[in-house]
Amino acid sequence: MLADFSIFVPNIYLLIGLLIVLAVGLALLLATLTGVNLGIWHLLERRERTRQHAERYRPDGEPYPPAGRGICDRCGRPFEKVYHMPSGERLCPEDYNDLHGG
Fold it and tell me: Which of 18, 39, 40, 91 would you call most buried, defined as having the most Cβ atoms within 10 angstroms of its Cβ?
């Protein structure tokens, strides 16, 4: 009994075509997901840069003085962030903003 190639050949072409479509679809899906992840990464990076800039610079563009943990010399309360002024005075963010019109 001989194989009937009149049905075998079109079926092979159909399977090869489906594999090509599947491979192209998978590549497009991978490229789309990579593009979405890259866009999200750029958005998060931009937000972080904006947050860091706002943390280091006042709204008028001047840099904040060095800061660290300590006790405010004006209100006497402890804070995670106390600005160390050039005069030696230590100010909490609230008192610093009151002093510099922030």
Answer: 91
In whole angstroms, give the CA distance from residue 79 to residue 94.
11
Strand 67-71 and strand 90-91: pairing? unpaired
Domain contains 3:
no
47 with 13, same domain: the answer is yes
Taking a C-beta distance cutoff of 8 angstroms, is the pair 83, 65 a contact? yes
| 1 part of a folded domain | no
Residues 6 or more apart in contact with residue 95 via CB below 8 angstroms: 72, 74, 75
Which tokens go with 23?
């491979």
Which residue segment(s) compose the domain that 75 sits in? 65-102
* Residues in the chain, overall count: 102
* Per-residue pLDDT reduced to its tens digit, 60-96: 889 999 999 999 999 999 999 999 999 999 999 999 9
